[in-house]
Amino acid sequence: MIQSSLTHRLKDQHRAITPIIIKLNDRQIQHHVIKGKWSIHEQIAHLAKYQPVFIDRIRKILLMDNPEFERYSAEDDDGFEIYCAFTTYELLKKINTDREIIYNLVTKLSPDKLDRTGVHPKFGKLNIIEWSEFFVLHEAHHLFAIFQMTHTMN
Fold this sequence. Notes:
Blueprint: H1 4-12, H2 17-21, H3 26-30, H4 40-63, H5 78-84, H6 88-107, H7 111-114, E1 117-120, E2 124-127, H8 128-153
Antiparallel strand pairs: 1-2
């Protein structure tokens, strides 16, 4: 059974992005606060690009027995650069659209489907609830990075 805290984060956690960046202009959003590290825009592009990856993983877990996944790396994903070319507004729209898919996909599963597993290269066999927890914690890490960069500029 999915805990309500996970359900709420799956539904709404991504909505923290807009209030965090609302006072920034495009130059600030594109600025590399730390040389060699992602800008706020690139952080958001990563979050947007990872959502379809997560959706695909959940669908594979539902269709296959214990599929094994490679560690996701934006630097190795040609699609990441494509996402970086979108405006921040377009990325936020993509995040909202894909999040609705994720929310409906995960929260409407029966308990036996939630128990299905896939293999993460570092964390081993995870059921869909654990994959979902991993997903929102990963996202929270990037939200915190965005928050830090935003307040470093002020």
